[in-house]
Amino acid sequence: MHLLEPRAEPSRTLQWAAPPLAILLMLLAGSLLFLVLGRNPVEAFRVFFIQPLESGYGWSELLLKAGPLILIAEGLAIGFRARIYNIGAEGQLIFGAICAGGVAIYAQGHEGHWTLPAMVLAGALGGLFWGAIPALLKTHFNAEETLTTLMLTYVANFLLSWLVHIPWRDPQGMNFPQSVMFSDAELFTPLFEGSRLNTSIGLAVVAVVVFQVLVRRSFLAYRLEVGGQAPTAARYAGFSQRATIWVSLCVSGMMAGLAGVGEVAGPIGQLNLNLSPGYGYAAIIVAYLGRLHPLGIVLSGLLMALLYLGGEAAQMTLQLPAAITGLFQGMLLFFLLGTDAFIDNRLRLPRRNA
Amino acid sequence: MIDHLTPVLVGTLGAATPLVLAGLGELITERSGVMNLGVEGMMLIGAIAGFATGVGTDGNMTLGLLAGAGAGVLAASLFAVLALSLAANQAACGLALTIFGVGLSAFIGQSYVSHSLPGLQPYDVPGLSSIPFIGPVLFHQDPVVYLAFGLYVLVAWVLARTRLGLLLRAVGESPEAAHAIGYPVLLIRWCATLTGGAFAGLAGAYLSTVYTPLWVQNMTAGRGWISVALVVFATWKPTRLLLGACLFGGVTILQFQAQGLGLDVPVELLASLPYMATILVLVLISRDRSLLLLNLPASLGRPFLPGR
Fold first, then answer.
1. Hey, is the C-beta of B251 within 8 angstroms of any chain A C-beta?
2. Would the N or C end of chain B have less CB density within 10 A of its end CB?
3. What ipTM was assigned to the predicted interfaces of this complex?
4. How much is the pLDDT for B4?
């Protein structure tokens, strides 16, 4: 029953080798799955992982999807380092999108150069606010942030649903639950002709740089990390547990809010009920797969974006449900946690009695 | 008013049943010191397994419910391999199980979207169901509701009165001590986790085969997470869990009966009430740290690896 025994020293090799190993295991399990579903695994593999990247358009779509994943995961990683588990980034994304969308809807008719920056600001603040609620509940009432952040995701979803059904519904929208389309001044500019990739990718680039500097160079990040891993030591050193909670949840909420702006002021261009294909949840995997490291997250974000594209391609070419993406996401996290277990432990082999 | 109140109360027990089942399962698991946040995922896997079996057997509900429980056990064993045998972070493993369950159930469920099942007819308890008011509320329910309340009695009795319950609690309080006197800590935790999986799977299958007998993606709608919160709210005690689940069942059913009760508020507001109520009860119970610490299984969430 006990498969493991502790290593004397954590394995440095595995620390870095675990994510590629997990990806390899996921690919193997995926091939098995394709085989079980009666598809040629080699062909399915090509459709899922190669075909989406055979065109320039494919690459632009990859970046389009990687953008929000990287934004959210960078924020989440700050909290995860401090052992603050914000799993409601999806809700913070939605609330940020609602705030940005609200600005866009009320600005219609008087848009100008100020509109898009105002939307970005509103989205960031909205996400921050939605993250601050669980921070308040945790610091003042000791309520578990895992559960409160998740419950608030459902609340944000219902709020969005009410808004697009009643007060913000497009009067010319054939009764569909959606807002008016945003005007050009309220949208990020496309980077290339005929592509959906837009200037919001700049937000992700800036975020990566900022978080890299923050994590590598700042005392704040160090305090957060100590606060998470050794609360008693942190208290002795005068680092505040409360500050850790506030910073973790507000920063990750703000980043998710920014991702929400990127979606409504980007490929979606309005408020509707399909703002995110689960980016907030997928970003949790992105953060762990990227070893909570700002640059590692870029790589894992690109991989996760490829899983989304692969799912869409599998639906079109192989007639498999696009939900296969979620299946791959879950397997990936399972395998990552499994391989991670061998960083601090090794397999227990039957030993001869001395 | 009482005419409108009766359907609310009748519906309450049905709406509470999945919460009672999943909550009891998680309570058993947590009492052994294991925190499985994958309840939502196990429920979804149980829901689609139960539904697919029901459709495949031309509406055999018993097989459907059993298949749901079995699928829940399989799902829980994925968690157990990682979180127990490999001693990985329990919170992360539970989250992985939920993400996996959402994906797997949506993947399989795609081809079951247009099907429906006959559901289960309410069973009148002879003699008791004709009592005015109380009869229809308590004794005119489908068999799974009675089963859930029977399981509550069983779990409460086992935990409080039997050697097995004592063993379970001992492992949850101090795995080191239990290990030292020779109890198989990991085996007991495995069993508790798989039992939790069976309960969650059954809860999911109840939703998809009886409560709303059709498949909708993500149909558990957070009930797994609410169950986890209910266990905290119940301070790990079965009776409080039962009361909490009934309370939440009532809140859930409110949105369907609002018109009859003359409530003129947006349906989304009513629909979000259970989630806001979850936050509220968490706040109310968690603010008293000593109360939580007094009842919390002392080793909850901590992996056990002998020799570490």
1. no
2. N
3. 0.90
4. 66
